[in-house]
Automatic annotation (TrEMBL):
Top-rank lineage group of the source organism: Eukaryota
Protein name as annotated: Leucine-rich repeat-containing N-terminal plant-type domain-containing protein
Classification via Gene3D superfamilies: Ribonuclease Inhibitor
Organism this protein belongs to: Brassica oleracea var. oleracea
Signal sequence segment: none
Keywords: Leucine-rich repeat, Repeat
PANTHER family: LEUCINE-RICH REPEAT (LRR) FAMILY PROTEIN (PTHR48009:SF4)
Domain Leucine-rich repeat-containing N-terminal plant-type: residue ranges: 18-63
Coiled coil: none
Length: 182
């Protein structure tokens, strides 16, 4: 019996950094009224010292020994009004960039590269936003000068299917010192 338990745990074992990251996410967010989304996120240890398999947590996708967050970017992130850096890169996020993120007043770094985000880049309201990394997504739509704040210093939009004149966007971004469309 012990060998069976141990082999199951070995198959579900994640990198310790990924495991700690999941714990931090769980401590930071609460279910919306009427929702049981985080009910499956159980980090309590049984008498043998094992915890629930994080690969079975709602919204978590595992591949090999890595943990990935899947689904849409939670709208509840917009409630973290003092959030300065949001890095959800290298996950399985889909759909659009949540409207709640575009209105975060103190956001300075937005890193959403290597996901499956679609549609267009929303207009960001933060005037302290200095870094946007959206490479390797499936964003489409038109480049709008108003969507990117003039405070940007780093912009990576590689592998995008965006259209429109780049010159109007670049004229507005006079503090930019890194730009990648490739």
């Amino acid at each position: 019996m012990f060998l069976l338990q141990f082999s199951f745990f070995a198959d579900a074992m994640l990198d310790p950094v990924d495991f700690l990251s999941l714990q931090a996410i769980r401590k930071s967010f609460h279910d919306l009224p009427g929702s049981n989304f985080f009910h499956s996120w159980d980090f309590t240890f049984d008498p043998c010292g094992f915890t629930s398999d994080p690969c079975g947590f709602a919204g978590v996708y595992c591949d090999g020994d890595k943990n990935f967050i899947s689904g849409e970017i939670p709208a509840s992130l917009g409630e973290v009004r003092r959030l300065r850096t949001l890095d959800l890169s290298y996950n399985q996020l889909t759909r659009t960039i949540s409207p709640s993120i575009e209105s975060l007043p103190e956001l300075s770094n937005l890193i959403l590269c290597h996901n499956h985000l679609t549609e267009s880049i929303p207009p960001f309201l933060s005037q302290s936003l200095t870094r946007i990394d959206l490479k390797r997504n499936s964003l489409t739509g038109s480049n709008s000068p108003a969507s990117l704040p003039p405070s940007l210093r780093y912009l990576s939009l590689a592998w995008k299917q965006l259209t429109g004149p780049v010159d109007r966007v670049l004229l507005r971004l006079n503090q930019l010192n890194y730009l990648s469309f490739v």
